[in-house]
Design a protein that fits this description.
By secondary structure, the chain is mainly α. It is built from eleven helices and two strands. It has a two-stranded antiparallel sheet. Helix 1 packs parallel to helix 5, helix 2 packs across helix 3 and helix 10 packs antiparallel against helix 11. It is globular, with a radius of gyration of 19 Å. Keywords: Amino-acid transport, Cell membrane, Membrane, Transmembrane, Transmembrane helix, Transport.
């Protein structure tokens, strides 16, 4: 029983990481209709930014998070202004363009910093474990769970309870009429894309104590994030949250009872079966477009 509970905790921690990555993807994909295949590279840039700040200036991960948020968000803003803004309502072109951008970013990092793995030390204040009812819970993984929930609530408030969120929802429903009322749709799109990229950057920084930092690390993470977004329902915060939990728990459990490879295959097969019968996802967004 203790082993099962420990795996359940690991599954929740995996879900919290997936939620952070998928949240930015869901915002960009669900609100702007852009399939951002460079999202994984924003995760990678966040990880390298955290590594650079720690190895060069001795700045820990927690203190580096605001810097990572601003740096990666600004890079996302530049990508949107430089490329993506010209490709709205052309989904195939956005796929190809963001794919190309992702490859360019990855190769630039590989040429500039090399292919070697980098390691980032976790916060000393979060070292150690807590034992509760026979379950050993890492302090850092507990922090990830709490932090992910906080980001989710902050994003929900931003999108549904602020002036910016109202403008974004107005643009989603009807871009032309929104512009007639003075809402700058281009500015709204740019800020939304930058926010989604910044969330990916934060996710990349936070996972550095758990995985090695490499130029290709984002490629593997973004696949799971896409699965979470599609399974939960495009544009649905609730769906993304629940899907992240399901995928995280399924990954932990299947990996425990089978192995990592077969566990991943089992998760993918389960998602394929669900999407076969619910192609719109488990909790599709009901907003009228």
């Amino acid at each position: 029983m203790d082993i099962f509970l420990n795996q359940a905790f690991i599954g929740i921690s995996i879900a919290s990481i997936l939620l952070l990555i998928a949240l930015g993807l869901a915002i960009i994909y669900g609100t702007m209709g852009v399939i951002n295949l460079a999202h994984g590279e924003f995760v990678m840039l966040g990880a390298y930014c955290a590594w650079f700040l720690q190895s060069t200036f001795g700045i820990g991960i927690l203190a580096a998070l605001p810097i990572v948020f601003l740096v990666v968000g600004f890079l996302g803003f530049l990508v949107e202004r430089g490329v993506v803004r010209w490709l709205y309502e052309r989904p195939l072109d956005t796929i190809l363009a963001t794919w190309g951008i992702g490859i360019v970013i990855q190769q630039l990092v590989r040429m500039g910093l090399g292919p070697d793995s980098r390691y980032v030390q976790g916060p000393r204040i979060l070292e150690g474990n807590i034992e509760l009812a026979g379950v050993f819970m890492s302090n850092y993984r507990l922090f990830l769970i709490v932090f992910s929930i906080s980001i989710l609530l902050a994003t929900w408030y931003l999108m549904l309870r602020t002036e910016y969120g109202k403008k974004l929802r107005a643009v989603i429903q009807n871009k032309e009429i929104s512009e007639c009322y003075g809402i700058p749709s281009q500015k709204v799109y740019a800020l939304t894309f930058a926010y989604g990229a910044a969330l990916a950057g934060i996710a990349g920084a936070l996972i550095t104590p758990l995985v090695s930092v490499t130029p290709s690390m984002g490629t593997y993470l973004v696949v799971d994030a896409f699965l979470v977004v599609i399974l939960g329902g495009i544009g649905s915060f609730l769906g993304t949250t629940i899907a992240a939990g399901l995928v995280g728990e399924a990954t932990a459990m299947f990996s425990f009872f089978l192995n990592d490879t077969l566990g991943r295959v089992a998760v993918l097969l389960a998602i394929i079966v669900i999407i076969r019968f619910r192609p719109e996802g488990l909790f599709p967004d009901k907003i009228r477009k």
